[in-house]
Amino acid sequence: MDPQSVAFVPNNDSWRLCNDLLRLQQVQQDHTDRLLRLERRQDDDARMKSVWGATSPSRAS
């Protein structure tokens, strides 16, 4: 076997680490997206409450 070709043989540990890092980045991106959606919804809810004030339809009945 040619010694130069050995350099191109993938090391399973390196590939596994690379895959783990890619998975970690995807999970982090998913969590970031979810947090942004939750914060946006919280802001929307706060705006709705301020529009209705203390006499929201659920309390008026």
Q: What coarse outline follows from CA principal-axis ratios?
A: rod-shaped
Number of contiguous helices: 3
Task: Give the number of DSSP strands.
Answer: 0
What is the helical fraction, as a range of percent?
over 70%
Could you tell me the strand content as a percent range? under 5%
The low-confidence parts are none
Q: Span from first to last CA?
A: 84 Å
Order of helices and strands: HHH
The computed structural class is: mainly alpha
Rg calc: 26 Å
Largest sheet: none
Mean pLDDT: 81
Question: Would you give an account of this structure?
Answer:
This protein starts with a helix and ends with a helix. With 61 residues, the protein is mostly helical. It contains three helices and no strands.
State the main characteristics.
rod-shaped; 61 residues; single chain; mainly alpha; 80% helix; 3 helices
Describe the secondary-structure layout.
Blueprint: H1 3-6, H2 12-52, H3 57-60
Can I get a quick summary?
With 61 residues, the protein is an all-alpha fold. 80% of the residues lie in helices and 0% in strands.
